[in-house]
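Hi D.,

Good news: the full-assembly prediction came through. Inputs first.
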Amino acid sequence: MLEKKGNFNMERVIQEFDEVTRNASRVQRDTLKMILEENGDTEYLQGLGLGGRTDIESFRACVPLVTHHDLEPYIQRIVDGDTAPILTGKPVTSISLSSGTTQGKPKYVVFNEELVHNTMQIYRISYAFRNRKFPIENGKALQFIYGSKQFKTKGGLTATTATTNVYRSHQFKSTMRDIQSQCTSPDEVIFGSDFQQSLYCHLLCGLLYADQVQFVSATFAHSLVVAFQSFEKDWEELCRDIKTGVLSSRITNPSIRNAVSAILRPDPELADSIYRKCEGLSNWYGVIPELWTNAKYVYGIMTGSMEHYTRKLGHYAGRLPLVCAEYGSSEGWIAANVDPLTPPDTANFVVLPDIGFFEFIPLRGSGNCALSEPIGLTEVQVGEEYEIVMTTFAGLYRYRLGDVVRVEDFYNSTPRLKFICRGNLILSINIDKNTEKDLQLAVDEATKLLSAEKKLDLLDFTSHADMASDPGHYVIFWELNTDAKDEVLQNCCDCMDRTFIDAGYVGSRKTGTIGPLELRVVERGTFRKVLYHYLSRGTSVGQFKTPRCVGPANKVVLEILNGHVIKRFSSMAYD
Ligand code: AMP
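Then the structure:
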């Protein structure tokens, strides 16, 4: 039975969503019209000769497809303080930094109130569908969320990650209250300047309110795995803090210390119960439901590059379901998960026709040829793959996001998308082309050989197309949880080489124009160092995604990886 909670009426939210998705084509036209009416006077659109027209046909005829690179000069002027309506009619309230883990440097994008509004809209929709399956009552959420560093641009605008911009907004707190997702940690922990201290206190506050916690979440699955890996190390210290009511001396940040000390009281009973439960666990299996007994699910983005972490996360989650969070980017939201019971490997996302105007570039048969013409949201075909193009209320017009999706089917008349990969992440030496998905498949195949070995786990991985050697070759970096036999790793290396099956790779390997694939095993903790490198440049842990391919320009990350190699294997000759 759906019910009304606070200002939130789940039944109405679902009804409205159904209404909008049934009329996706009309809603898309109306949405584009609204975007263009609001922003028609901007320098960008004026310059393209739209002349106030708001229909799809004129829009497509006048406005070119662009990438972030094309918009950089416009965004830079906004960053530098030009307050004229350059890309948006409404004022730009701040600048978001996308995680930039793929390109190696953060990208600036415009942030405004519309994006906050869109974020709350999609949170409400996905919560309504989630709550139908997993009703929660008057609870809190253990959320591993982190504000990131912020700075003032030359023009005086605040620049920070999109998630931080959202967490700081007024609407965020009230929506979280409505949808029962109040974080167990005080703001000082979320916005603390030291990630390690914030993480420790998230765990501590989560334990203090353990019986009220209804679900455990983070933006991306990676943050959840990092959190529970830290818990494995710090659980005794956390128990000590709870027993004595005195916060560990490792928390040196005064505002975090004050805020957490204010809620920490000596509670030997709780501390002992946590201690006993932890001691009773086998290799931390099911730690989440064991300690947070009222939690109904574990929630976060678990698709795409996060899929790798779901095995480890599933181990911590035990009997609790892993529920996939919505699909979007710093640039704007795209689609919601309305089937919370679907596991991460098959999860898909229903596009919200009123959150932006969407076009899809067909990828089938595109090969190296010219780009196919984009088609509309309701014209896509089931089973086909597309690159997403978005037009938003935040100043992006026909913007190529770089993501590849496949249409699984339709929800009413709007497509359900499966996220496939970042389109621009390609391992390529000459005529070979392998995407993030191909790399994931090769790694998955090889890790099957690892699972035969007890307790051996691949913690993280990335790749690099090494052109410095002659011939060039693929390098795959692996971090394992423990030592593995050389024989097993050699087999993994051979297996990955054979699993890249695109004709370009196979042909080049056979003719020797691509050298043997190299597996470089790095020391435990190396990928943490990569994470810290990104954090030092302003990325938030919440938005961090391990780059699955490190380009030659990303020198610092390559140095970190290469500086910690403990073993190397080269694949056998190719016949
Ligand atoms: P950011 O650059 O930090 O804004 O990250 C946005 C990117 O994260 C998107 O373009 C996707 O590549 C990825 N992403 C976001 N949501 C999902 C999701 N639900 N599944 C898979 N990948 C996602």
